[in-house]
Amino acid sequence: MTTIGVVYHSKTGNTKKMAEKVVEGIEEAEGEATTVLKTAEETDEDELLNWDGIIVGSPTYYGLPSASVKDLFDRSVTHHGELEGKVGGAFTSAANRGGGNETTILALLEMMLIHGMIVQGTSKKDHYGPVALGKPDERALKGSRELGKRVATLCAKLFG
Amino acid sequence: MTTIGVVYHSKTGNTKKMAEKVVEGIEEAEGEATTVLKTAEETDEDELLNWDGIIVGSPTYYGLPSASVKDLFDRSVTHHGELEGKVGGAFTSAANRGGGNETTILALLEMMLIHGMIVQGTSKKDHYGPVALGKPDERALKGSRELGKRVATLCAKLFG
Amino acid sequence: MTTIGVVYHSKTGNTKKMAEKVVEGIEEAEGEATTVLKTAEETDEDELLNWDGIIVGSPTYYGLPSASVKDLFDRSVTHHGELEGKVGGAFTSAANRGGGNETTILALLEMMLIHGMIVQGTSKKDHYGPVALGKPDERALKGSRELGKRVATLCAKLFG
Amino acid sequence: MTTIGVVYHSKTGNTKKMAEKVVEGIEEAEGEATTVLKTAEETDEDELLNWDGIIVGSPTYYGLPSASVKDLFDRSVTHHGELEGKVGGAFTSAANRGGGNETTILALLEMMLIHGMIVQGTSKKDHYGPVALGKPDERALKGSRELGKRVATLCAKLFG
Predict the structure, then answer these.
(1) What confidence score (pLDDT) does residue C97 get?
(2) A84 chain-D contacts, CB cut-off 8 A
(3) Percentage of chain A surpassing pLDDT 70?
(4) Interatomic CA distance for residues B36 and B66, integer angstroms
(5) Which chain A residues are closer than 8 Å to B105 by Cβ?
(6) How far is the C-alpha of D155 from the C-alpha of A118, rounded, in Å?
(7) CA-based nearest residue to C114, from C153, C79, C152, C71
(8) Mean model confidence pLDDT for chain D
(9) Does C157 touch chain B (CB under 8 A)?
(10) Model confidence band, residue B108 (pLDDT cutoffs 50, 70, 90)
């Protein structure tokens, strides 16, 4: 039994929609997982300690996660070293292709690596993590579901 | 009168097509510019010295420029310091969105920054540089033309 | 006569010290420049419009600029397109080498490119922008001065 | 019993020295692992299939892996999809701090993520992977050993 937190920031609802699909993907994975779905603002940095997997979604603002999402990571410094070995994943919703979506996801993954976390890419489509351009289309929603499943599967192997 | 080199690597012809549009864009810019269009393999590192602007295009191979394009930059080390202040730009052709196209362009720009070169983004569409997904569509070709024009305009201001 | 804003966020004083050296560098450059030195929190996004050059410094927090610095860029979206063609530069103060300092500077430069701004690297030492590890040493302070001079020189060429 | 390949490119011997320490680290880890140590040039892309973990080291050339290392990844496309779920790690030897070492390591990790591989950072010191500045000092050698141990430990958990 593992626990996975899905944390997002969403103003237009696009990133939120992806977050909900990530949760569905976690539930589809083999092995039982409890899922927590919260916004970055309402996530206390102490909660990160309770989760085996942490999946974070942010809108693409200037090619990076929003200040709200960044603020959660800045606050997480009180637990530096304690997230070592947890599994991470990231997704984003952007205005257009080539507009900073990959750099947003990589920024999220970089912060996870600095925490000593474990991340996985995918050899199919959005390699670093799922990207929606505008309102998430079928492809972006499917990618979000697959991200949830991928993280949950890895969590089950490592902590299940 | 400025000189701008457009260097590319292309296997399928997609990046080459973009390169040709970059050349068109240079010609549209105000101020006269001589343009040199070559593949990365046929570009001798000494030639870089002759150009005020250097625009490089590569296919996206594993989220980075191809080994051929990288090899040109590796060879350019003999002229380290001598490209300082030149203007650069980058473009790429990738298989799909979210598949490493932004990281390819940023990798190209990083190499230019390490040479002390000057690069400019754009507030519209593909911010770091134009991206084609598969066969370049109208949008990618227009972005390529705009990149050529942007670099030529900056070269004219700085060296014209 | 050009105007250059130096914006920073600093908790320990390390990034602030670098910011002050950046200002010294601007004053050393040929061509007159007015300099404005402010923290990211006290910088209103409207002020960005008044500056020909914008140099931003941030501590390295999880391999990225701090949430305060990010927040300034998020707020700058009201002026998206209006910073096109301005000159940018970035610097950071980090806890240790290999600890995210380069990714912090690149994140700052990426945001500037998305605004359509112009950035320049250097072929010497800290290529993307000056990095201090802990309390800024002579090397970091010299690099900061050089950054100020580099941006001011480019501003003078383009807008002087 | 797992198998881990350590692949490097080294001209001055610095990256090679780190590679040897990575191997030592693998041997220190709990769980038995067979190690293969090779240069990028002598590594056939087919061999990648035999390894549970792939650790790659490159000198920092213009902020990216060398063309030889890039060429191995370009060749690996024949096995795209088949490296999914393998464990990766990266290290680099650079001329100076702030000079592109982090971007080199991230470039290596990006290529691994695009293959669907699993990578882990560390909350201590060189977060993305060990960095040597010039001739590897004690710190860089220790970091290399820890990288080997970290990858071997994760391989043992996942495939042992």
Answers:
(1) 76
(2) 122-123
(3) 100
(4) 21
(5) 98
(6) 12
(7) C79
(8) 96
(9) yes
(10) very high
Which of B63, B70, B76 comes nearest D111 by C-beta?
B63
Q: Are B127 and A94 in contact (CB under 8 A)?
A: no
| Count of domains forming chain D | 1
- Residue D31 has a pLDDT of 84
Name the residue with tokens 């602007």. B53
**Chain B: partners with 3+ C-beta pairs within 8 Å:** A, C, D
Q: Give the residues of chain C that fall short of pLDDT 50.
A: none
Chain C residues closer than 8 Å to B106 by CB = 106, 110
Residues of chain D with Cβ-Cβ distance to A115 below 8 Å are: 121, 123
Q: Does B101 touch chain D (CB under 8 A)?
A: no
**Contact B100/A127, CB-based, under 8 Å?**
yes
C-alpha span between D63 and D85 (Å, rounded) = 27
What pLDDT is recorded for position C56?
Answer: 98
Domain span at residue D16 reads 2-159
Residues A127-136, mean pLDDT to the nearest whole number: 96
Whole-angstrom distance, CA of residue A66 vs CA of residue D27: 42
What is the CATH classification number for the domain harbouring C118? Answer: 3.40.50.360
What is the DSSP annotation of A24-59?
HHHHHSSS-EEEEEEETTT--GGGGGG-SEEEEEEE
What confidence score (pLDDT) does residue D106 get? 98
Question: pLDDT tens, B26-61?
Answer: 999 988 899 999 999 999 999 999 999 999 999 999
Structure tokens at B66: 């191809």
Cβ within 8 Å, pair A110-D106? yes
Gap from B76 CA to chain D (nearest CA, Å): 9
Give me the amino acid identity at B115.
Answer: H
Inspect the interface and report whether the beta carbons of A100 and C114 lie closer than 8 Å: yes
- Global pTM? 0.98
pLDDT at A123 > cutoff 80? yes
C62: closest chain D residue by CA: D127
Kindly provide the ipTM of the predicted complex, given to two decimals: 0.97
Whether B154 and chain C come into contact, CB under 8 Å, resolves to yes
